[in-house]
Amino acid sequence: MTNAVHDNPARKRFELEVDGETAYTMYRRSPGIVTFVHTVVPAALEGRGVGSTLARGALEQVRAHGDKVVAECRFIAAYMAKHPEVQDLLVDAPAPPRAKPGLPRGVALLLDPLLNKGTAFTLAERAALGLRGLLPPHVFTLEGQVARALENFVSKASDLERYIYLTGLQDRNETLFYRVLVDDLERMMPIVYTPTVGKACELYSHLFRRTRGLYVSYEDRGDVAEILRNWPQPDARVIVMTDGERILGLGDQGTGGMGIPIGKLSLYTACAGIHPVRCLPVMLDVGTDNEERLADPLYMGLRHHRVRGQDYDDFVGEFLTAARAVWPKVLVQFEDFANTTAFRLLEHWRDQTCIFNDDIQGTAAVALAGLYSALRITKRPLALQKVLFLGAGEAGTGIADLIVTAMVDDGASVEEARRRCWFVDSKGLVVKGRPGLAEHKLRYAHDFHPIADFVGAVAALEPTTIVGVSTVPKSFDRRVIELMAEKNQRPIIFALSNPTSKSECSAEEAYTWSKGRAIFASGSPFPPFSYEGKTFVSGQGNNSYIFPGVGLGVVASEARRVTDRMFARAARALAEQTSEADLAMGRIYPSLTAIREVSAHIAAAVAEIAFDDGLAGVPRPADVLALCRSAMWAPHYESYLASS
Ligand code: NAI
């Protein structure tokens, strides 16, 4: 009989071969510890002391490695009890890993997208949380999971398929979803938000897989607070709410408009780190006037025409009151309401509760930020600008109102500031005395003679800046741009109408007709353009620069109201984040890759106003930027194990 006990790590056992038979003792290793689990001595070798030889040899090797022993195997335990010289090797079995309290276990944990880590649960977490056997054995890092997600993402045949894939990922594992977004926001934003989300809203009732957010329907009136209490998260802090009537440029999508609050809240988290647990998408379903949807047997919303008038306003009021009662610190963002509804609700509620309208105020702040950046190039003060708008709708009047707020902030009177904003709408220049002017245009109806067309207004008023928010493509034609370039060394030209097909002019047209002197920004992106050897990268006035940071500032300071002064400061903060290098290539907004840093600064600017104006719900800290940064969540996995 040979006596050589040897370690066979591949089979996790110490082995002893005798007369062609193998006796072995199996083990598990953890750092510094060998746990013996089971010993086998073949029948042919019994009664010959083989077991003792095996135990002695195995324990000698353990000692030689400086390890200790846990004896789960009864044979090894008995051997060690009988042999005092090996008892110093014995240690108690280490306590099994324990999970942090309050976590679900097993399948329930895997089905909770806010907590699920999928294949990234460590072996210890799997043991502690009842997950052993429920996952494939290899443990992945978050980076490894991102690689798999991206492989799936690129393999899809269309952007809509990519949207569906990402939605599924969000429903399975939010940390991984946000990591994928944050790592490549420029690539992911057009999928989770406009333009792809528009298609998803149109097809919502057909693509629907799993519910997300709250659907508050008109049939629930009277019970809205009770419905809100069904939401499982006790500390909702940002609600994005739509009634689905004006979804992007696609009109009334009824309940399908829910895609927009979901997408927009993804951007709150990705761009400004608002924790997903604090975000709540809401669809206020009051019916739809979209006949195609009403006739669709799969349509999931209320199947009647829109409730309007006082009944509608009362329902919105019930929702806002209930939301504030259930979540006293919540911010409600109105999203994609129809033009007149949007203005009315904003005016009615802005001084009563914590709300804002991104289409009006967020757009305005992005445009004002663009103007501030442009003025860093022209080196002219805001007070001396004359801005002529083409289009007097939500976007146009919202921008003008904020420019006025900013000028007043700088010391101008409201009247002086308004005289610097002019409008041309479908009926020509908006002037005092023009019959039938809508309420929101009256404050910009100045004493001037009527002018029928835009180019005539440019010639007569000699603006420093023109802003296109008309949805009329090509309305900034060659004559308009050449005239602007004739009157201004650096004409500021913003063609903000979306999508690209509606843009008032292209980047190429603005740069070519102004002989490379235009400072240009657009609503939809244009590719870089080279003119006489210089490459221009035009800015995209994307609302995502502003609203996430504003939301973060409100959340961090627990502000009770959202004011125009906050948006004006947010615009200034965004402009300050635009680097000299950006400006040198004509870009008046920072790169989206810097968005989380930009959002932190915008949040700080907003929070400062909340503190200055007595609107904050927490005491002012010494470092407001640090307060905002500390409220930002980043998509990393946290350990679920209790720290022993
Ligand atoms: P809206 O429907 O409220 O206003 C459009 C305005 O254009 C109306 O006053 C209308 O009378 C005017 N208009 C229509 N035809 C005209 C013509 N031939 N000449 C002069 N004016 C004319 O729409 P809203 O919400 O103001 O949006 C306007 C455009 O701005 C849209 O294309 C929208 O996509 C874009 N927009 C861009 C944003 C961005 O870049 N960040 C954000 C919000 C809107």
How large a portion of the residues is in β-strands, by DSSP E? 5-15%
Largest sheet: 7 strands, mixed
Helix content: 40-55%
- Ligands in the structure? 1,4-dihydronicotinamide adenine dinucleotide
Taking all Cα atoms into account, the compactness measure Rg is 33 Å
Low-confidence segments, ≥5 residues, pLDDT <50?
none
Number of helices: 27
Overall mean pLDDT stands at 96
Description of the structure:
The chain has 644 residues and is α/β, with parallel strands linked by helices. It is built from 27 helices and 19 strands. It has a 7-stranded mixed β-sheet with strand order 13-12-11-14-15-16-19, sandwiched between helices. It is elongated and about 120 Å long. The relative contact order is 0.08. 1,4-dihydronicotinamide adenine dinucleotide (NAI) binds at residues 249, 339, 359, 363, 366, 390-396, 424-426, 469-472, 496-498, 502, 523, 541, 543.
What key phrases describe this protein's structure?
alpha/beta; 644 residues; 42% helix; 7-stranded mixed β-sheet; 19 strands; binds 1,4-dihydronicotinamide adenine dinucleotide; 13% strand
Describe this structure in a few short sentences.
With about 650 residues, the protein is α/β, with parallel strands linked by helices. 1,4-dihydronicotinamide adenine dinucleotide binds near residues 359, 391, 393, 469 and 523.
Describe the SSE topology:
Layout: E1 5-8, E2 13-18, E3 21-30, E4 33-40, H1 50-64, E5 68-71, H2 74-82, H3 106-110, H4 123-128, H5 142-155, H6 159-172, H7 174-183, H8 185-192, H9 196-202, H10 204-207, E6 214-217, H11 224-228, E7 238-242, H12 259-272, E8 279-285, H13 291-294, H14 309-326, E9 331-334, H15 339-349, E10 355-357, H16 358-378, E11 387-390, H17 394-409, H18 414-418, E12 421-425, E13 428-429, H19 439-442, H20 454-461, E14 465-468, H21 478-487, E15 492-495, H22 507-513, E16 519-522, E17 529-531, E18 534-536, E19 539-540, H23 547-557, H24 564-576, H25 580-584, H26 595-612, H27 624-630
Parallel strand pairs: 4-5, 6-8, 7-8, 7-9, 9-10, 11-12, 11-14, 14-15, 15-16, 16-19
Antiparallel strand pairs: 1-2, 2-3, 3-4, 12-13, 17-18
Helix pairs in contact: 5-6, 5-7, 6-7, 6-9, 7-8, 7-12, 12-23, 16-17, 16-24, 17-24, 20-21, 23-26, 24-26, 26-27
